[in-house]
Design a protein that fits this description.
The chain is mainly alpha-helical and 96 residues long. It is built from five helices and no strands.
Length: 96
């Protein structure tokens, strides 16, 4: 059975891994990450454990966080952002 693709193009089972990796890159607890996204701790926990999927609005906020990281003055954060993007959002060949 094919995986459902969300708005960001991340396979459904990978969304939890993406969220966990981003949260850990930011060195945030689930509670602090939840506060940053305007959701509750149990929501982050369910996303990371694959029991729920982020809403399109939450996914946009996560994408915005990745964009912020890619422009960070901290070289380590920029590298982590690039690694996360390459891992979860591989560029597709756009040749005609």
């Amino acid at each position: 059975m094919p995986f459902h693709q969300d708005y960001l193009g991340v396979e459904q089972p990978s969304v939890g891994q993406l969220i966990r990796e981003l949260r850990q890159t930011l060195k945030l607890t689930q509670e602090k990450f939840a506060t940053q996204l305007g959701v509750t701790f149990p929501t982050i926990n369910r996303w990371e454990n694959g029991h729920a999927t982020p809403s399109p609005l939450a996914l946009k906020q996560i994408d915005a966080l990745l964009n912020q990281l890619s422009e960070s003055p901290d070289a380590s954060l920029r590298k982590h952002s690039q690694t996360i993007r390459e891992k979860y959002f591989p560029t597709k060949d756009l040749k005609a």
